[in-house]
Amino acid sequence: MGAVRIRDIQVYHPSNEVDNEYFIERFRQKGTEVSGLLRALGRNKRFMIDNPAENTLTMAIEASKSALQSAGLSAGDLDLIIFTSQTPEYLLPSNALKLHNALGGDLNTICYDLNANCAGMLVAVDQASRYMMGNPRIERALVVGADYLTVHSPDQPVYYSNFADSACAVILEAASDTRGLIDSIYQTDTSVIDNSLFPAHGLSNLYREEFTAKDAQVQFTPFDDSVCVDSAVDSLRILLERNGIAKEDVGGYLFSQFSLGNVKLVAERLGIDEQKVTYIGDKYGYTATNSPFVALYEALKAGKISRGDYLVFWTVGAGWQNVSLLMQY
Prior knowledge:
Blueprint: E1 3-12, E2 17-19, H1 20-28, H2 35-41, E3 45-47, H3 56-71, E4 80-84, H4 95-103, E5 110-114, H5 120-134, E6 140-147, H6 157-160, E7 166-175, E8 181-188, E9 196-197, E10 219-220, H7 226-241, E11 250-255, H8 260-270, H9 281-284, H10 291-301, E12 310-317, E13 321-328
Parallel strand pairs: 4-5, 4-6, 11-12
Antiparallel strand pairs: 1-7, 2-3, 6-7, 8-13, 9-10, 12-13
Helix pairs in contact: 3-4, 7-8
């Protein structure tokens, strides 16, 4: 089997930038104090859609166009398009097909959507890489992760004041000068399966007279997310040990940007050099399905990661599921 590497990565976010004071004042008027929450999560700025013409799909299209242009490719060069989101603009047709149409994809391009909540883009890159490794006819893939959660959670303090809107596009290609995707680990614990629900009462109840549009918005029940740290530390140790890679030999650690506290805890318990752990949640907010890849994008821009470096990704999806990947860039 051949290797699969990341050829290019690009990010799109709306132009509207907001800071913590907006959320603090908004929820203070509702009788809820979020300043401590934002401080604990490590927030400062983030980008939010304020243009009705923008949505999950439009952001994905812009990120994809940028990635293709940066890589010197056209949509006709893509053999596979995977779109991942927990807030897709459409359920039918698939957003991957919408992307294919907007970009001008080839007749033989494979297209499908995937939803693994905030773990979505890691899962999609894992699946795309393994598909490509097993099928030599698939030479290039476009994986796009986008979320527009702010429109679906205006009354949820944890979601609305924490999450932000963006899209990230990654181009994968077959390569012989890298190990590419090396390994992945999934740990799943569904003990909090109903703590995040969207639509709140399920799709089948959207049209019942007793429910309004507001009843369909995100429903969130807070829970202790520190248990995810235990799972992350365990899975990352296994990931490195079974592949014979020392933590010091990893060039970059790209973790979930949900909580600065959790990022620090995982790094501390693994004994990782904090200079190798990229945190961009203060600048972007929490961008959900794509947050580890937005961190990679920023690390590359800052010159912190070079070709040949080992990369370790970790994130967690609602419900919950920890996902960790080991790659060579």
